[in-house]
Amino acid sequence: MLRYLTAGESHGPQLTAIVEGLPANLPLSTEKINHQLWRRQQGYGRGGRMKIETDQVAIGSGVRFGHTLGTPVTLVVANRDWNNWESRMSVQGEPPSDLETVTKPRPGHADLAGAIKYDQQDIRNVLERASARNTATLVAIGSAARQLLEQFAIHVYSHVVEIGGIHAGDVSGTIEEIAERAEQSQVRVANSDKEAEIIELIKRTRKEGNSLGGVFEVIVTGVPIGLGSYSMPDRRLDSRLAGALVGIQAIKGVEIGMGFAAARRPGSEVHDEIFYSKEQGYWRDSNGAGGIEGGISNGQPIVVRAAMKPIPTLYQPLQSVDMQTKEPFAASIERSDVVAVPAAAVVGEAVAAWVIASAFLEKFGGDSLQEIQANYQNYMSMVAKR
């Protein structure tokens, strides 16, 4: 079973992830993990924190000479901003006399509910862990998962569908071409005609002290038929993907394939007809299901979209209440982004890779990469004969 545990605060010394279940002999490159961490930090509209941090991973266990040992892998991303916060975030000792506590919760954040749940007088004890800074560990573990998937020609891509109500429009080309155009865009849109319009909106929004949300799409290619199961709700591949994506900070909605549009069309315009030829085997000429039927991958590209709400920190803050005095106040301001949808798309790739890799190992699992490859080849040979 593939599983992970993460720890760390936004302004603490480091972010840590422990990954268990990666097979032995898997090539695991820190350079590839660092590239994904770099991608997470890009995108027009990011805040000042991205100018401080240059995320780099350090592997503390489970890897020797670039290959996994089959034992837990520890991934550490240091917080460079810790140097500026050490006295205020110290693990030991007493708080400094000039420590400013955060008592004005931000609407839309975990501040108020978290402070009440964990009985905290200083909201910083909540917001540090709730911060989207912690998605760096998700990207690191997702990179490990995608390095496993790449051994089996399974690839993960993303692009932004809309930001602040401006839709990127229809895009043409192969999945790889769409992803490449998105990679070259400051806002990860595959339609260059819309990029300037979106950037102008972000500029206006920054001046207004406001924030923006949007929608991104993740596409996974090369997934074989048979991952997931219809037998139990928690084993369905679509339910697992939806849960993982909603687990990303600020994600409030997920749709797979045609998604909500399917509810507004008749069945004849929704379901993907099945064809067969000796050369291709079973095939479809549409993908309204988004690559998943009955909770099981059907061999088509997996397509999932996620809706991200605007970031809760506003430089023209909304009304709130001071938790100490109960008096009305403007909410606290933390250093933040105007929009983080392009970065969230990269995080979405990571969690999708993790879910697919987990389901992949459940079906083809073994203790070494070579054992998994043998199981996979045997299954694919069987599928080819059906």
Any overview of this molecule?
With 386 residues, this protein is an alpha+beta fold. The chain has a single domain, classed as Chorismate synthase, AroC fold (4-Layer Sandwich). A five-stranded antiparallel sheet has the order 8-7-9-15-10. It has a four-stranded antiparallel sheet with strand order 1-2-6-3, covered by helices on one side. It is globular, with a radius of gyration of 22 Å. The mean pLDDT is 94.
Supply the key terms:
5-stranded antiparallel sheet; single chain; alpha+beta; Chorismate synthase, AroC fold; 4-stranded antiparallel sheet
Shape: globular
The CATH architecture can be given as 4-Layer Sandwich
Q: Largest sheet, if any? A: 5 strands, antiparallel
Which strand order do you get reading across the main beta sheet?
8-7-9-15-10
The overall pLDDT, averaged over residues, is 94
- CATH top level is Alpha Beta
CATH superfamily: Chorismate synthase AroC
Give the helix level as a range of percent.
25-40%
Structural domain count? 1
* Cα radius of gyration in angstroms: 22 Å
Low-confidence stretches: none
By CATH, the topology is Chorismate synthase, AroC fold
Number of helices: 11
Structural class: alpha+beta
- As a percent range, the share of strand residues is 15-25%
Alpha carbon gap, first and last residue? 29 Å
Order of helices and strands: EEHHEEEEHHHHEEHHEHEEEEEEEEHH
* Strand element count: 17
Task: Give a short summary of the structure.
About 30% of the residues lie in helices and about 20% in strands.
